Amino acid sequence: MIGEATIRLVRERTDIQAVIGDTVKLTRRGRSWIGLCPFHRERTPSFHVTPERGIFHCFGCGEHGNVIDFLIKTEGVSFPEAVRQLADRAGIEVEENRSDRQRRDEEAAKKAREDLYAVNNLAARFYETMMDEHPHAKLAREELERRELVPSEPTDAIATALQSFRVGYAPAEWAALAAYLRQQGIAPHVAEQAGLLLPRSTGGGFYDRFRHRLMFAVIDLQGRVVGFSGRILPDPQTGLVDKETGKYINSPETPVYKKGDLVFGLYQARQPVRQAEHAVLVEGNFDVVSLHARGIRNVVAPLGTAFTPEQALAIKRFAPEVVLLFDGDAAGRKAVKAAREPCKKAGLVARAASLPEGIDPDDLSRTRGPDAVKAVIKASRGLLEHLIDVSLEAPFSGSSSEERVERLHEVVELINAEDDPAVRAIAQKFADDVAHRLVQRDANLGMADVTTFRALV
Ligand SMILES: [Zn+2]
């Protein structure tokens, strides 16, 4: 528990205009500062910050509160986290009601976490430098070229996206990072705990986990590097891609990185997600970076796992809705279906956008431009309707009567799994219409099937 006195002191000593000014461009007007509201979309500013009262208020959407509320709402942090951040900033010691023993334990744990953030940050810097300096980084740059992620000037949207995702290159060597970290005075066991180094099986010493990989930093909601995701590259000697190893290697779980909690790109996307009032969920890291580079910045991806309820909750801190923009293939369709449950658990409204067969969002943005992606997102539909359509749209002709019944059952199950009676009613009507259209299109699906179907629903 943080003491009342500390909370009061934090509010008194914090310059609310400076804190909010980090995320909102503020202009002075009399005793207030005004800017474009970060909580709703607007063209003319109705968001007011009044330093002498220590509050913000939006006359457009009614969002209001003090500086602590602002951090909770915009950064997705908890109350104690917000107070600690502000206390750090104002140089205030946080007084908490704890025993000395608790305090010592917590301080030791905090120090250990800070060491992990520091070593991860050093590694990110090393990989960024290697992208420019290492002879084999050419293969990583070629991968970026293939995806047309080559900046034409150091400050354009592509350069900004590559920098904000801290894209780098892990050298094709056994102990390049290990040597660099040793130079920097980092104890190898700290780098091992961060998941960056692995102990050699014989003879002692450590080697690099990520070797000859295109690196993306995994960044938490406070902007700290907590891990990495490394994409495979063609072998420098043979030019071939090893089919035996995984396409991506991700950091293992560490005290600062829990798999399934973190959403890739949410830190970079958090303001655009809030402004758009929805996030766009894609499958791959490259889709995220590529869309950011092309100006679609409310895009995130699950990381190294299927989409989880925790990830859905993390998104919900910034927007009530998610649009699933998964690849137009069997795996993508399966992933859309699998995302339904986590969204439901988190109370995150889910919609689905359909990409053409065999196309991923990165392909689409490159070949047809960001507007084509925006159009697909705009045409997204409620997840249940989408799933019903997918189940029924494949032609029925040629399928056996068992198969037909199975698919109708599938749709019935989809509808019955919906808790909201209003949504269920709409979905039933929708399924009924689709089934009806099928009869007209498909000679093998008789009126009898539709009657059966209606009876089931
Ligand atoms: Zn507002």
Sequence-ordered SSE layout with sheet pairings:
Blueprint: H1 4-13, H2 16-21, E1 27-29, E2 32-35, E3 47-50, E4 55-58, E5 64-66, H3 67-75, H4 79-90, H5 100-133, H6 137-146, H7 157-164, E6 168-170, H8 176-183, H9 188-193, E7 197-199, E8 206-208, E9 213-219, E10 225-232, E11 248-250, H10 266-276, E12 279-281, H11 285-293, E13 299-300, H12 309-316, E14 321-324, H13 330-338, H14 340-346, E15 349-352, H15 361-368, H16 370-378, E16 381-382, H17 383-393, H18 401-416, H19 421-441, H20 447-456
Parallel strand pairs: 12-13, 12-14, 14-15
Antiparallel strand pairs: 1-2, 2-3, 3-4, 4-5, 6-9, 7-8, 9-10, 10-11, 15-16
Helix pairs in contact: 1-4, 3-4, 5-6, 7-11, 12-14, 15-16, 17-18, 17-19, 19-20
Zinc ion is lined by residues 37, 39-40, 47, 58, 60-61, 63.
What are its keywords?
457 residues; alpha+beta; DNA Primase, Chain A; DNA primase DNAg catalytic core, N-terminal domain; Dna Topoisomerase Vi A Subunit, Chain: A, domain 2; 4 domains; 20 helices; 16 strands; binds zinc ion
Shape: globular
Q: Which ligands, by name, code or SMILES, are bound?
A: zinc ion
Number of domains: 4
Task: Tell me, rounded to a whole number, the average pLDDT.
Answer: 89
- End-to-end separation in angstroms reads 52 Å
Question: What is the CATH superfamily label of the largest domain?
Answer: DNA primase, catalytic core, N-terminal domain
Q: Ranges with pLDDT <50 over ≥5 residues?
A: none
CATH architecture tag of the largest domain: Alpha-Beta Complex
Helix vs. strand class: alpha+beta
Short description:
With 457 residues, the protein is α+β, with helices and mostly antiparallel strands. Helix content is 49%, strand content 13%. The strands form 4 sheets. The protein has a 5-stranded antiparallel sheet with strand order 1-2-3-4-5. The protein has a 5-stranded mixed sheet with strand order 13-12-14-15-16. It has a 4-stranded antiparallel sheet with strand order 6-9-10-11.
